[in-house]
Amino acid sequence: MNPVSWPVAFVQARAGFVLLAPEMLLALFGLLTLLLDLALDEEQKSWNALPALLGLALSGCALVMVGFGAQTASAFGNAIVIGPFSGYFGLLALMLATLLILLCTHASGPASRQSGEGYALVLLATAGLTLLACANDLVVLFVAFETVSVSSYALANVGGADRSSLEGTLRFLFAGAFSTALLAYGFSLLYGLGGSTNLSVISARIEVLSQLSSAENSLLGMALAATGGAILLRIAGAPLHSGTPDIGERTPPAVAGFVSVAAKLACFTLLLRLLFSIFWRERYDWAILLMFAAVAAMAIGTLASLRQKNTKRLLAYSAIAQGGYVLLAIAASVNRDGSFNARGLGSAGYYLLAFVIFQIGAFATAIVLRERETAGENVASLNDLNGLNGLLRKHPVAGGSVIFLLLSCVGVPPTAGFIAKLEVVRVLFANQHGAVGWTAVLFAIPPIYPSFRIVRAMWTDGTGATERMPLSDAQVVALVVMVILTLLLGVLPAPFEHFAAQSLGVLVLR
Amino acid sequence: MIPVEHYLAFSLVLFAIGAVGALMRRNPIMILMSIAVMLTAVNVNLIAFSRLWGTVNGQLFSLFIMADAAAETALGLGILVVCVRRRDARDGAESGLSRW
Q: Average pLDDT in the A120-148 region?
């Protein structure tokens, strides 16, 4: 490179950073929140939410301005691809973080509970999620995925350092690190196949070879096994060690919800990005594999959640079951004859949108219980649903919102959750996967029982009912916004489904 | 010249050793070490392929993996230190987790 051209190259290389504005803003405001937290007194800690929310809002604006063009723009030697796909998942990530931070502003208890570190970690995890959506390169994918994971390990411990919380975090860390190592192994094999870490280059090379030699074929199979296995381990929460469900007692329920949803979102982004570019050659294999994994996830999640008394664990297991539905939708986007079915991907995207909203909303049940416990009322914390008594009568808005979001989680019309499940089942039947479709319908039924218990607990008046609203204003606002979105998605699903199908459809290069 | 298959076989064995260690060990420090062994196997793979293809991306990737391994291990050890510090004195010197 001759010495005159390096300033030009310097400036030209910086052009890519404009495309990364959402992530940079999130990282910047995350650090600002951390700094602000150091400067605040104990009583003023509730101001921590301000830079966090500001960062999310600015990042959202940047995302809309930068990320939603119909063209895909690429930067850094095609390592970052900004387009409808990255815009869609970036939007999901920002929505998740905003809802979380609103739900974390507590009404009672010491203000120091709202730790700036927690908000900073949430922002950094969201930056990782957004970067993951834009990544087109194995290195960037790995770094972004790890940003989300390591932030989650740290977040799992934000509630306080008691024994069970620390042990739960350690177990979560081990399970996560194990699946990360497996994922990295798969990535290294992909690099070996492709000669470059860029996904486009690798998939081009794999496509061009009309017939892979047997060695390369086995390498590709091993890569699929390693990568797919790692992602599925992460989604299903690892039958080996426990994944997210076992985060300790003191983690705020909203944070536990965020960690589980963020992990799922990261896994699905990664899965979608990889399956439709590199592993397209093996789509028959992975379509079947995904269906098995989906049924297993639904089975594990549903059966485990039925036996749980602890509300937080119940919700975490139900999140695993929901993940199973998304896996089914992804598997259904490959037709029997090997062609691509855009409707399957669209239903997967729509399900993820509904999932983000109702999963965080379902955690509101645990939030109410935790708020009551902190306010000093004699509630036996998350194991005892009696803490919900009287919520519906005394505070109809909050109670009604929580119930509505629970209904969406279970899949009752006219909520978004119902439409999402319906669409997945419809795509399955349209693809002649009848047995799997009926299994999906079957597994939609058991979650009704725990929700019925929760609703009944809210309906009955109890001695624990208080006049004072356990939730703060910001939390109620978040809940109402979620209810409105769920209703909107449920009553008018078509434009959202279309949007999802368009955004995810760019993945497929053929 | 060592053929690349040798490197691949070595890294596979190393990865398997690390995986078995991560799954079977009770001591959390040993689990962290096993995870580090797994990531080392990944690095061996990457560097072998980088040599095969003549590009430098593999080595770049392995640097990032090293950084990430360090971050995770540091976090895990930090949590472990707090965990052990909070343990009652009468529990003795064993540093395993209570139930696995």
A: 93
Mean pLDDT of chain A: 79
Q: Residue B92 region, left (φ>0) first, then alpha (ψ -120 to 50), else beta?
A: left
Residue B43 resides in a domain: yes
Q: Which residues of A364-381 are buried (b: 16+ CB within 10 A; e: fewer)?
A: bbbbbbbbbbbeebebeb
Domain range for A366: 282-510
Q: How confident is the model at residue A212 (pLDDT cuts 50, 70, 90)?
A: low
CA distance A398 to A476: 6
What residues in A contact B72, CB-CB < 8 Å?
146, 150, 153, 173, 177, 180
Q: Quote the domain boundaries for residue B8.
A: 4-86
Q: What is the mean pLDDT of residues B19-24?
A: 92
**Tell me, what's the pLDDT at B19?**
95
Residues in B touching A162 (Cβ below 8 Å): 86
Residues facing residue A82 across a β-bridge: A73
Give the number of domains in chain A.
1
| Structural domain includes residue A498 | yes
- Residue carrying structure tokens 């030009």: A8
Closest CA to A364 of A325, A398, A333, A414: A398
Amino acid at position A210, single letter? S
pLDDT of residue B83: 80
Q: Give the separation between CA A246 and CA A312, rounded to whole angstroms.
A: 9
User: Is residue A61 pLDDT above 70, yes or no?
Assistant: yes
Is residue A39 in a domain? no
Return d(Cα A207, Cα A148) in angstroms, integer: 31
Does residue B97 lie in a domain region?
A: no
Q: Residue A44: what pLDDT? A: 67
Q: pLDDT class for A4, splitting at 50, 70, 90?
A: low
Give A 138-157 residues with CB within 8 A of chain B: 138-139, 142-143, 146, 150, 153-154, 157
Taking CA–CA distances from A158, the nearest residue in chain B reads B79
Contact assessment for residue A297 and residue A236, using Cβ atoms and an 8 Å cutoff: yes
Residue B19 forms part of a structural domain: yes
**Taking a C-beta distance cutoff of 8 angstroms, is the pair A373, A381 a contact?**
yes
Query: Is the model more confident about A465 or about A269?
Result: A269
Taking contacts as CB-CB distances below 8 angstroms, the residues of chain A near B11 are 188
HSE at residue A335, side-chain half, CA atoms within 13 A, is 8
Residue A300 lies in a domain: yes
Does residue B92 form part of some domain? no
Q: What is the ipTM of this complex?
A: 0.91
Q: How many domains does chain B have?
A: 1
Which pTM value belongs to this model? 0.89
Closest CA to A249 of A373, A139, A399: A373
Cβ atoms A23, A62 nearer than 8 A:
no
Overall size of chain A counted in residues: 510
Amino acid letter for position A7? P
Identify which has the larger pLDDT, A6 or B15: B15
Compute the C-alpha angle A171/A353/A123, nearest 5°: 55
Query: Minimal Cα distance from B36: which residue of A?
Result: A181
CB contact under 8 A, B39 and A240: no
What is the model's pLDDT at position A447? 80
A405 or A142: which leads in pLDDT = A142
User: Which CATH number fits the domain that encloses residue B55?
Assistant: 1.10.287.3510
| Cβ-contact A341, A290 below 8 angstroms | no
